[in-house]
Amino acid sequence: MLNPTQKINTKIFDADVEQVTIRKGFGEGLVLAGEADPNVVGLCADLTESTQMHLFAKKYPDRFVQVGVAEQNLAGVASGMAAMGKVPFIASYAVFSPGRNWEQIRTNICYNNVNVKIIGSHAGVNVGPDGGSHQALEDIALTRVLPRLTVISPCDAIEAKKATIAAAKINGPVYIRLAREKSPIVTTEETPFEVGKAQIIWQANETATGGKVGIIATGALLHEALLAARDLENEGIAVTVVNLATIKPLDGAAIIDLARNTGAIVTVEEHQIAGGMGSAVAECLAQNNPVPIGFVGVADQFGQSGTAKELVDYYRMSASHIKEAVKKVLTRKK
Amino acid sequence: MDDITDNKIIELEKKANDIRKSIIEMLLEAGSGHTAGPLGMADIFTALYFNILHHDPKNPNWIERDRVILSNGHICPVLYATLAHAGYFSTEELKTLRKFGSRLQGHPHREWLPMLETSSGPLGAGLSQAVGMALADRMDKGRSSSRFFFTLMGDGELDEGMNYEAMMLAGKERLHNIIAIVDRNNIQIDGFTEDIMPLESMYEKWQAFNWHVQEIDGHSFDQIIGAVAEAKTIFDRPSVIIAHTIPGKGVAEFERKYEWHGKPPNKAEAEMALTELRTLGGKIKNENQ
């Protein structure tokens, strides 16, 4: 059942659940962060509306810098602005930032330890028709290896808004991963949000006799994980679903607790299995509380054109694939 | 800035010579590092820190200071030596260059040495950061800001495409308080710049990006100081000074040889270099050698 303390949207299983793009939550959050702190500035590499930074640019034209299609410069300029006391948010597609400008993010931002927020939109296969060139499936791996960088992957527009406001208040570099396509609103304004804290969204039915599994999901696929959990509960499997919005720093205590309570884990992310959130979870559990883990994600492939739904299905990340992964991991429990 | 007098120029030349001696001593002690670039840029660093900059070595965080952004971080021996001679820290500390626990990291890191404006080493990224600083400065102080952003760049690093992204943005935004100084010494690690990747016409390249361009003799204090003075009068665009320098300048054996880009002198070479520098290339006959 849905965890009542998390105040989850009660309509999440309805056919007409409200759908909003995660990037829109960022756009609205940046305006609020800008209202709260006059040092917040926005920089964009010719994707102002796509990344939803246009909301900020329209309200604060004097605090917005258009750098053109130049992501390396985007990161370097932001580093310089931060050195002068600004709180720069840089927005582009994740393939380009942190993809193309990874070394500038590493050296000019993280090594330099300056207060820059990197916004990578259009992550995951849900980018859809634009095809594999524009579908970032590597950005979590690229960012979570950088010392000092906080990595956040919000599950919906509301959480993206909260993450953006929170990022502006962190004194250090932050990466926020966004998606292009509309996705169900899972949380509400009342849902608690704290950077670095995992949240139990779905609580297991403790009377179930068909085995216990913990699902850890990040990003919009949290909704697919919840659909899977509801079905699995009907089949008698006790499933706990955790939303892991902050991938770095990792909430190790919550993950170890979940592994101890369930004895088996399935991770769900719209990202390469190699190096992503599941890898971070595996690193933690291998050292602290080893349990069987199943990984739902993209298996060493590039994306392609199609609708978001077709692609999530094709790359085996939908609710039915999560259910399969849960059943498979159950067979590996001792 | 005061009008430059002959006496002042002689004083600066002596200071640059002292800085060159420190560079040789610290490289010998470190056992690795770059020789040619630091020696070649000693006059420009001396002119900046002992004549041009608004700065306060006793208060490195002074908010109104001019900023020096070193883009080609590998020439940091000249930065460290100049900072020490200017009074930011003791010249004794120069001997810790590149050693474990030293604030003088092999390439500059602002966290170890907080008086630095940035960390550098990976080439081509300094100008972007200067552009960001100047944009922030304009947001806070408008076009009448009196802070200048001196960006020191190598010529070899102009192979990096990121520079041209930064040049375009600085030109677009007319960031007049950026003064870039390119160390045009014609060498990079693998050879002469015009063999590795031709950079000419450098003057026309910068001009095409809407910069005010000057070319000078990078060892003439008169020209260095005069060019910066002219750059400060330009209010509708950023300025670049292409400073023609001799890599290894001051030690005949090291001059104009790209082989000296990335290696330090050994003991015998350092002694020879120090002798040459102590006598100002043989001009001073009575120096105790």
Record the SSE blueprint.
The complex is a heterodimer of chains A (334) and B (289).
Chain A: E1 19-21, H1 22-36, E2 40-44, H2 54-59, E3 64-66, H3 71-83, E4 87-93, H4 95-100, H5 102-111, E5 117-121, H6 139-144, E6 150-152, H7 157-169, E7 174-177, E8 182-184, E9 199-202, E10 212-217, H8 222-234, E11 238-243, E12 246-248, H9 252-262, E13 265-272, H10 277-288, E14 293-298, H11 308-314, H12 319-331
Parallel strand pairs in A: 2-3, 2-4, 4-5, 5-7, 6-7, 10-11, 10-13, 13-14
Antiparallel strand pairs in A: 1-8, 6-12, 9-11
Chain B: H1 6-30, H2 36-40, H3 42-52, E1 67-70, H4 76-86, H5 126-141, E2 149-154, H6 162-173, E3 178-184, E4 187-188, E5 191-192, H7 193-196, H8 202-208, E6 212-217, H9 221-232, E7 239-244, H10 267-278
Parallel strand pairs in B: 1-2, 2-3, 3-7, 6-7
Antiparallel strand pairs in B: 4-5
Question: Could you explain the architecture of this structure?
Answer:
The complex is a heterodimer of chains A (334) and B (289). With 334 residues, chain A is of the alpha/beta class. Chain A folds into 2 domains: 4-16 and 193-331, Rossmann fold (3-Layer(aba) Sandwich); 19-184, 3-Layer(aba) Sandwich (Rossmann fold), CATH 3.40.50. Helices cover 37% and strands 20% of the residues of chain A. Chain A is built from 12 helices and 14 strands. Chain A has helices at 22-36, 54-59, 71-83, 95-100, 102-111, 139-144, 157-169, 222-234, 252-262, 277-288, 308-314, 319-331, and strands spanning 19-21, 40-44, 64-66, 87-93, 117-121, 150-152, 174-177, 182-184, 199-202, 212-217, 238-243, 246-248, 265-272, 293-298. In chain A, strand 2 (40-44), helix 2 (54-59) and strand 3 form a beta-alpha-beta unit. The model of chain A has no long low-confidence stretch (mean pLDDT 97). Chain B has a single domain (6-278), classed as Thiamin diphosphate (ThDP)-binding fold, Pyr/PP domains (Rossmann fold, 3-Layer(aba) Sandwich), CATH 3.40.50.970. Chain B contains 10 helices and 7 strands. In chain B, the strands form 2 sheets. Chain B has a 5-stranded parallel β-sheet, sandwiched between helices. The chains are: A alpha/beta (334), B alpha/beta (289). At the A-B interface, helix 3 and helix 5 of A face helix 5 and helix 6 of B.
